[in-house]
């Protein structure tokens, strides 16, 4: 019986405590709402934020606005079509290894296939165009991947983590400011002497909580500004990647006109002296040394991968924009002529 009595007493005390706590929360919510309403009508007392906070708040708001805007516009630059952009986003979420579909690569494949069906200068030129488009496509793919990694991902993390945390601190400060001003208003209007001490204590507690949150928010905003300064490195990497993509595109396009083409005299030579051997036109009798301009990944068994700045010997060039090379280790295979710089 004694244990049951003590248990009953503790339960009653717990219920009483919970009831008091809930009443306190309701009373606090009511005072906030009342204070907010009075301020809207210009009748409530408002604690002004300090000049440092106001300056930082304006700066962080501007940082947030431009970061959101630039992040969105860079996404548009990489993929202007919103439908395809959403499709790529969903595919990437479902399959992280999903590659980016680029029109340059599809057009390059079509041009190469078409070039193989044509003879003479037309076939050679179509093949060179296809090789150039595939090179541009691969270069753009790398640019898009680097832009996502070096610029968009850090900017989105900045928005989703740092700025969101700062916004939460700001909201918390606003709530505590309402509590403080509500306490001040109630103290100012109080006419009962016995209640003044209680209101003074409440006002001191609210003021301490507000001051702590104020400093916490200011420190958070200062960190935001410091982190924002590091964005210079992100944009430098983005511009370096963009510049590399544009330069490589020009080189690939120049390769269309600088790659040896089939001429009318070549065709006459083929018909009279048998200069054509298995679809390959020998350009010069001596092997030529060349250096790889970019990395190249083989797309068939006949081709061979090479690394940027790797030095190879070119043994033959054909009319499809490819050259047969020999590496230092003796490996041989074909690579696009546009990827080579003759030494």
TrEMBL record:
Superkingdom assignment: Eukaryota
Keyword Cytoplasm: no
Keywords: SH3 domain
Keyword Secreted appears in the UniProt entry: no
Stretches assigned to the SH3 domain: 285-343
Disordered, as annotated region: 1-28
Cellular component terms (Gene Ontology): cytoplasm
Name of the protein described by the UniProt record: Endophilin-B1-like
Organism (species): Oopsacas minuta
